[in-house]
Give the backbone structure.
Amino acid sequence: MTTATATSTRLHKIHRSLAWAGLLLTLACQNQTSAPPAPMPVASAHTSANETAVSARPVPSIEPEVTFRLQPDLWRDMRQGFALAHHAEQKRVRQELRWLMNHPQYLHNLKPRMERFLGYIHQAVAARDLPSELALLPIIESALDPYAFSHGGAAGLWQFIPATAKRFGLKRNWWYDGRRDPIAATEAGLDYLEYLYVRFDDWALAIAGYNAGEGNVRRAQRRAAPGASFWELALPRETRAYVPRLLALAALVADPQAYGIELPQVSPVVPFTVLDTHGQLDLMKAADTLSIDIDTLYRWNPAINQWATPPQGPHRLLVATADVYDAQALLSAIPQAERVQWLRIKVANGDTLSEIAVRHDTDTASLRKANQLTSSRIRAGQALYIPTSSKTLTDYPRARTVSGTEYFVKPGDSLWTISRAHHVSMNKLMKANHVGPKDVLRIGQRLSIPSGSLRGSRTVIREVRYGVRKGDSLAKIAARFHVRVTEIASWNQLNVNNYLQPGQSLKLYVNVAGGE
């Protein structure tokens, strides 16, 4: 920020403070009323001297207390922490501002999501003493949709790709995807931004690095003159629009009247409470204990993929603050034996740990931990304890149903990989095709994929636009996004026998909550 800009900002804040002080003084004067002077008491013939003395004391006039409270306003709180130059004079920022002015309903349409998450994100930014503009970044990244999913595999409010998620400590497994956890992902997102700011010593470049990757920004700097600003760098087209989009949104929030926009009213109060589950907890048990609808519980906990919280944590649940009185005490009172039910089985000849996990809607890591196994090797007759849901898994929301279809075995396929790709249990797959778990699949072998579901898996479908790359085929794209070739062809009116062209745009409907 230049010296002139900083001085102008300070003067603006002083003028704004004086204006508020004048308004408060005016309101106070308008609300005060003048009480008539109290008449002096007159002693009657029956009044004693002491009584007269007491009654003769002046009676103070009681005036109404003047109280002026500002309504909670997230935008006002956010403005107080704004610290970036918004560069409203830049052509690219003006273009983004014009878009916002031409779509005045955009932010109003996002109000339900802003009320759910933006107050928390702003508080997390403020707690680190970072520029408040950064709290607006998830609006640009995901429209504050925790289930947002990009064709490049980025997911969640902060749109982490798998490699960056792992780098910043976000867990991803069959039970849970930390990229969709509003708490974990916000911490990771701010960690990443702080890291980038340390590297570039410039917030515009740090934000650009968040979008394009720090390597791309470094390469652009090497090609430019020493000390070149963001506006002078030859960055990817998406990034050249990304930073101006954030700055335009910040400029609009800073002074909506200047752009003829009315912002939706959003409270800065965080609307959810974080509860400690004290270990793995069946979500149906939690919902029953808290008298909350199971769908509502899933909506507040978008990172959970399955019927229970992840066995290795994080051990928490989010609930709406207003929903339950003393929710933590209620959860803490659940006996340990009732948090997750356990089924004891005996390993049969030919069983593998992965096949048992699929049959019982769990994962091998959980089975190994629960049974204190140091490897995935098991033997016939061995007893295993399996975590099981308290109710039939069809009672849990959004079980994905798939129609029957045919599939031709490809190199590297196994019953396990085919069952996972088509969201059907291995038991159903084996029964439909009269094959056993040890049968060798032949390349080109035709398998029938039965109608059914991968029980316990959750489904949240999002539309994804995918740009075809060199070497892509319908089969490769279908395997990558866990959909079927016939589905891609139907969604895009394609002939499955025709070749795809690089750059061709495909519309996909992807389950973004099915786990690993």
Summary: The CA atoms of residues 52 and 218 lie 90 Å apart.
